[in-house]
Automatic annotation (TrEMBL):
SMART domains, alphabetized: BTB
Any one Pfam family match given in the protein's UniProt record, by short name: BTB
CDD domains xref list: BACK, BTB_POZ_ZBTB_KLHL-like
Involved pathway(s): Protein modification; protein ubiquitination
InterPro entries listed in its UniProt record: BTB/POZ_dom, SKP1/BTB/POZ_sf
Source organism (scientific name): Macleaya cordata
Origin: domain of life: Eukaryota
Span of domain BTB: 86-156
Name used for this protein in its record: BTB/POZ-like
Amino acid sequence: MYNQTVSNSTSKNVVKMRCVSCKEEYQDSDAGTCKECYEEASETEEELKREIDELKSKVSFLSSWSPFDDHHHHLSSSSSSSSFFSDVLLVATDDESPPVPANKAVLVSRSPVFKAMLETEMEESRSGTIKISDVSYNVLRSFIHYLYTAEVPLTEPMACDLLVLAERYQVKHLKSYCEKFMTSKVNGENAIVSFAFANQHNAKHLLEASLSVVMDNMDKLTKQDDYKDLVEKDPRLVVGIYEAYLAKQVNTAAASSK
């Protein structure tokens, strides 16, 4: 696994090991690998753990319904099981695009809002058509695609629109997916808009990330048009920003005085 080398010293022999990863020599006081390789391996392990957690979450989301789960129940009910598995059409009322077809069973298993619509005698259940306002055809199609695959290519506008739709229909997995993407895109140019959006849609991680960037760039951000718009539209949020900023200043001063 490793090679030993011995160098002469006036006081004692120093045994050095050769790292099994990078092949560089390191002191025998270290164990197994050199410090740099050990730290790199630890970072890789954490990254793999995060990827595994994400995959588990995706599997859980996609496995939340099986056609066998309700088979016997629906066979025993007055309606046939075929009605439960029939298609449904979703229509984006904002344009004249074609409807997006979907399967009732998938919608019911992914969203408690769709479940309430389609398992009761609501109009959507009787007509087999669900009208969705304030959404474009492309966003609606991406939304349905995600319900089937737990994957969708994101841009910043698409992530915003899908997060709103995910919140409306309580698709937590999609909301988290979009929020994570948006959080990674927060910068000095969009921090104020992101902060206001996160507050409106209860996106905690995006809110924290945006607020952090805002507070780090207060001198620049207060000159932006987005800041002026926020002062006019929602002064309560501006007060919240300054309260957080002042609290940070107090904490920094207290820490430096110790």
